[in-house]
Amino acid sequence: MTRLALQWLYFAPWIQDDFKATRKLTINFGFRWDVNMGVTERYNRINSGFNADVVNPISEQIDKTKFPGYTVKGGLTFAGVGGGSRSPVATDWNNLQIRIGAAYRLNEQTVLRGGYGTFYQNPTSLGTSLAFPRRLLMSPRSTPAAHPPTRSTIPSPTA
User: Fold this and answer.
1) Rounded distance, CA 132 to CA 45, Å?
2) For a surface tag, which of 20, 26, 103, 109 has the fewest beta carbons within 10 Å of its beta carbon?
3) Residue 141: its pLDDT value, please?
4) In 3D, which of 40, 18, 43, 16 has the Cα closest to residue 30?
5) Cα 145 to Cα 49: distance, rounded to the nearest angstrom
6) Phi/psi at 79 (5° precision)
C-alpha cells in the first residue's frame, strides 16, 4: 500500500489572566480557541464521498453487444479532484473554550482552589486510527476529473 502524505493543521491561541480581588482571593480567567483544519493529502488520495451520478469505470468492461447502452453509475469521489475542496471535512471553527478559576487563602497553610472549563478532544491526535481509517483512504486512479467531489456522504468502512 502506498504511504499517504496526510496533513492536519491545528491552531490553539489562548489568553489567560489572574486578578487579585482581595488579599485572600485570586480569580483567573482564560479563553482558548481550538481551530482544527480538515485533513488533506498531498496527492489528493482521500476518499471524500460517493457520487451516484458519475459513470463507473467498470462500464468500459461491459460487453456492449449484449448490453447496448447500459452503463454502471456510481463511484467514489476524492478530495481535491475536479475543483472540489482538498479536505473531505470542513474546518471546525467553533471550539471556543472558557476557563475560570479561583483560589481563596483560608490561612497561611491552607488554600481552597476551584475552577471550571470547557475542553475539546483534538481529532488530529487520533490520526488515522479513528477519524480516517486507512480502508477509507483510496487512490483516485479511475475517478473522472470532470465530476467534482461531493461532501454530502463519507462512507463508513465495514469490518
Assistant:
1) 12
2) 109
3) 41
4) 16
5) 14
6) -60, 135
What would the grid cell of residue 16 be?
489567560
Q: What is the pLDDT of residue 125?
A: 52
Domain chopping of the chain, boundaries: 17-136
Are residues 152 and 49 in contact, defined by beta-carbon separation less than 8 angstroms?
yes
Task: Provide the 8-state DSSP code for 138.
Answer: -
Q: What is the DSSP string of 77-118?
A: EETTSTT--SSSS--EEEEEEEEEEEEEEEETTEEEEEEEE-
- Please give the residue that has the higher pLDDT: either 85 or 125: 85
Reading the block at residue 80, the C-alpha cell is 481535491
Phi, psi of 116 (to 5 degrees): -140, 145
Q: Which amino acid is at 76?
A: L
Strands 14-20 and 40-41: unpaired
**Could you report the per-residue pLDDT of 47-95, keeping only the tens digit for each?**
888 889 988 989 889 998 999 989 999 998 888 888 888 888 888 889 9
Report the residue count for the chain: 159
Q: Which three cell numbers stand for residue 105?
A: 487563602
Q: Is the dihedral of CA 148, 154, 158, 159 positive or negative?
A: positive
What pLDDT digit, counting tens, does each position of 26-36 carry? Answer: 999 999 999 98
> Taking the model in full, what pTM does it have?
0.58
